[in-house]
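Input sequence (66 aa), recorded before submission:
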Amino acid sequence: MDILYLLIPLSLVFVAAIAVVFLWAVKSGQFEDMEGPAHRILMDDEFPKPTQKSSSLDKGGDEGVR
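Predicted structure, token format:
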């Protein structure tokens, strides 16, 4: 029964900390655009990046073969 005197205030402090973090996230704009990132992943880049071939495959030597 004595443990309740510790756990109840500790849980209230924990809930208050979570509320402060949540309010900070809302005020800083973390929840402004919930659909934008979901649609952004479906969009293609305007100019695709050129692919580079590995230089180790283009040497053509027998350095690794024994």
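Checked by second reader. Residues 1-29 form one domain.
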